[in-house]
Structures are given as structure tokens and as C-alpha cells.
TrEMBL record:
One of its GO terms (molecular function) is chromatin binding. It comes from Zostera marina (Eelgrass). It comes from the Eukaryota. This is SAWADEE domain-containing protein. Pfam families: SAWADEE (PF16719). Residues 90-217 form the SAWADEE domain. PANTHER family: OS09G0346900 PROTEIN, PROTEIN SAWADEE HOMEODOMAIN HOMOLOG 2.
């Protein structure tokens, strides 16, 4: 599936449209119908003419992961979560989905069992995802304490060689993947905060990318 990796193909207009629709619908239940209707609207937009139609599950995944990303970099006076009417999630664990290899916050542990290889598994409800995304994962391999976002003035905590998770957008998804820090360009901070640049390498495919601090979370 990694051969599909490339930048998400939402246009800027579509992203703006999504943000507006989400703000308008902040009190509506975010069920399957909601995302299907949203996707229909996005696909009808003229900017998508000639491109492959989006699927509602792609739209939902992208929105929920983007929201998590925005929440993790939220400042005390951040406006985005205020607009969304939500607070910083209190999550203690993250789990690795076998569907895409990304790490997602755990909302609840629903059940447990031993599989045929005597490995302890838990049924996970992912934060911001519904029941149809519940997943059995092997606890030893795919559950761990949640990674921690880094404040702008604490970027010195990130060092070359560190294990981190890095937010990565793809055509069909956007989520956090395991990565290691290869190189750091320390830069003078300004009013916007940390301007340092971090060269990271994703563990699963060895692809390297230079990213800003806000896309990285440290391992506790
Ligand atoms: Zn910095």
C-alpha cells in the first residue's frame, strides 16, 4: 500500500470548504451519513472535476486526523479547537492500526482475548473514530503510552537519533508514523515560535522528509 503514498489531493478550496462545513455542522452527529453528505458536496465542487472522486471514508479519516493534528499543536489561546467546540483530548495510550501502520490515540479498551498464538489482544476504540473502526491489536506490539507533542520553546528536547512519531499526509489518509530524527537545523525562533527544521526518516519505508516541530511528537 505504501506505493500509493503521495500528497493528499484535496485542493486548498476543498480544505477551506471542509473547514466551513465542519464549523457549521459542529452540533450535528458525526455519523456515516454526515460524512457521506459532506463527501458528496466536496465531489460536486467544480475544483474536483476531472479528478478521481473522493470516498467518504477518505474524507472522514482525513478530517479526524487533521483535527487531532491541530489539537496537538494548539496554543492556550488557540482558536481552532474553540471553533470546533472541543478541548484537548486526554489520552494515555496510542495503538498501531494494521490497516495503515499509523499510530492513533486510544479512546477505550473494549475487550481482550488471547489469539491462537497465545498473544494478548485488545479491542480498541480509537479516539474520534466510530464503532466500525474498532480493531483488535496485539498489545505487546501495537499498544504503548501516547506520544507527546512538544512546545515550541522545548524544541531543544529533540535530538538526533530520537524515536518520534511524525504526522504525514497521503492521498487516502493522514496520520502519525514512527520515525527517527536524522539531522536538525537549529534556527532562531521568532514570534511564530520554533523555526527549526528536522530531517526525519520514516521507519516503515526509510523515506526521509524535512519537517517542522509541530509535526513531531516525542516518545515519553
Ligand atoms: Zn526550535
Amino acid at each position: 500500500m505504501w506505493t500509493l503514498r503521495k500528497r493528499l489531493q484535496f485542493t486548498d478550496d476543498e480544505i477551506k470548504q471542509l473547514e466551513v462545513l465542519l464549523m457549521e455542522a459542529k452540533d450535528e452527529p458525526k455519523d456515516t451519513k454526515f460524512y457521506q453528505n459532506l463527501t458528496t458536496k466536496i465531489n460536486l465542487a467544480s475544483a474536483r472535476t476531472g479528478k478521481k472522486a473522493l470516498q467518504w471514508i477518505q474524507v472522514r479519516r482525513w478530517i479526524l486526523n487533521k483535527k487531532k493534528h491541530l489539537l496537538t499543536k494548539e496554543k492556550p489561546n488557540g482558536s481552532i479547537s474553540d471553533k470546533l467546540g472541543e478541548n484537548q483530548p486526554k489520552v494515555e495510550f496510542e495503538a498501531k492500526s494494521a490497516n495503515d501502520g499509523g499510530w492513533y490515540d486510544v479512546a477505550r479498551f473494549l475487550s481482550h482475548r488471547f489469539n491462537d498464538h497465545c498473544q494478548f489482544e485488545c479491542l480498541i476504540r480509537y479516539e474520534n473514530f466510530g464503532t466500525d473502526e474498532d480493531e483488535w491489536v496485539i498489545v505487546k506490539e501495537a499498544v504503548r503510552r501516547r506520544s507527546v507533542p512538544i512546545d515550541s520553546d522545548e524544541c531543544y528536547r529533540v535530538a538526533v537519533g530520537d524515536h518520534v512519531i511524525c504526522f504525514h499526509e497521503m492521498e487516502s489518509n493522514a496520520c502519525y508514523f514512527d520515525a527517527h530524527v536524522m539531522e536538525i537545523q537549529r534556527k532562531r525562533h521568532d514570534i511564530r515560535g520554533c523555526r527549526c527544521r528536522f530531517l526525519i526518516r520514516y521507519d516503515h519505508d526509510s523515506v526521509q522528509e524535512t519537517v517542522s516541530l509541530e509535526r513531531i511528537c516525542c516518545r515519553p
